[in-house]
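stage 2 :: seqdesign
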């Protein structure tokens, strides 16, 4: 990919340079041509004026209607060259901006697709290999009941991870196809407890605390979409936080709307990337060097589900360190 981009960039710079030089030469040529026309018309007028007056009286010549018309046309030609020059310059700048933006977008999408392929390959390969190892062990060895239960729990953990990956991919595909939420009363505290219980299977060391007011009323939302929001925000917080660091999920309900907050004590998100993290396939860091697993779909799904509910999503710095995701729907 890098080998292909270098000649393309050089060719683009060559084309841009050629267009700028050609445009400058065209402007200069028009300006010179307007001056030559002015001089020719002026000389022709002087010749006619000389024949009729037997000599050249410049004062009288400059006061004639014909000369004033020639001079007006000369100034008009200059103004026209300047106006057209400014117009074409604006068009050129706008065109270059559009082309550059499109090129940068294509490069970004290509990098994101590459990152996604790398991450999804790793995400699928590890649990598949683990499940296969569990099945091979069960089929080839005589194991005690305790060993069988341990292997089954490990296999179930990886199977759940595969299921979550598939659900994320399917939901991301539906979100791109004008997905509409099916609103229904949802018990948010119970949903959050179920999500946390599932996360503890994969991340036993996770320190997740739930804070809900007593008698928290049901919220009107799409249950699968709300589950995806809670699941991805908490999983993201666990993966990017130190082991055992406090992760808190809290909510409040007011005037028919609810606010959901997920705070962690991880490394945080740089200000320059606070909006980029919601792009599809975007992940912090370099794909080859980052340690946290993931596909780059989690926060994209969260953002799209919140938008589908006509809600708002904000990301802020936690104090003294970490990140706060706040959702209002």
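stage 2 :: out
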């Amino acid at each position: 990919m890098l080998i292909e981009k270098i000649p393309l960039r050089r060719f683009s710079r060559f084309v841009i340079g050629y267009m700028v030089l050609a445009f400058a030469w065209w402007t200069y040529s028009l300006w010179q041509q307007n001056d030559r026309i002015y001089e020719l018309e002026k000389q022709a007028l002087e010749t006619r004026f000389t024949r009729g007056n037997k000599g050249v009286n410049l004062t009288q010549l400059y006061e004639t209607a014909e000369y004033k018309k020639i001079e007006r046309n000369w100034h008009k030609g200059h103004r026209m060259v300047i106006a057209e020059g400014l117009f074409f310059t604006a068009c050129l700048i706008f065109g270059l901006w559009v082309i550059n933006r499109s090129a940068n977008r294509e490069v970004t999408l290509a990098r994101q697709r590459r990152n996604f392929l790398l991450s999804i390959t790793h995400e699928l390969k590890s649990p598949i290999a683990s499940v296969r190892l569990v099945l091979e062990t069960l089929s080839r060895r005589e194991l005690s009941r305790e060993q069988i239960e341990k292997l089954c729990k490990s296999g179930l953990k990886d199977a759940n991870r595969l299921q979550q990956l598939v659900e994320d991919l399917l939901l991301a595909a539906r979100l791109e196809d004008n997905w509409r939420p099916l609103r229904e009363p949802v018990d948010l505290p119970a949903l959050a407890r179920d999500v946390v219980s599932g996360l503890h299977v994969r991340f036993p060391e996770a320190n997740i605390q739930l804070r809900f007011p007593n008698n928290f009323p049901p919220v009107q939302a799409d249950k699968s979409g709300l589950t995806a929001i809670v699941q991805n925000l908490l999983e993201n917080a666990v993966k990017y936080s130190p082991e055992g660091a406090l992760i808190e999920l809290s909510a409040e309900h007011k005037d028919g709307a609810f606010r959901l907050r997920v705070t962690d004590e991880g490394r945080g998100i740089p200000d320059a990337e606070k909006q980029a993290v919601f792009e599809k396939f975007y992940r912090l860091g370099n794909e080859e060097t980052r340690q946290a697993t993931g596909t780059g779909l989690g926060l994209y799904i969260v953002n799209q589900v919140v938008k589908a509910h006509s809600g708002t999503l904000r990301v802020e710095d936690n104090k003294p360190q970490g990140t706060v995701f706040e959702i209002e729907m």
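stage 3 :: structure notes
- The helical segments are 2-53, 58-62, 65-140, 145-176, 188-202, 223-239, 298-308.
- The domain at 183-328 is CATH 3.30.565.10 (Heat Shock Protein 90).
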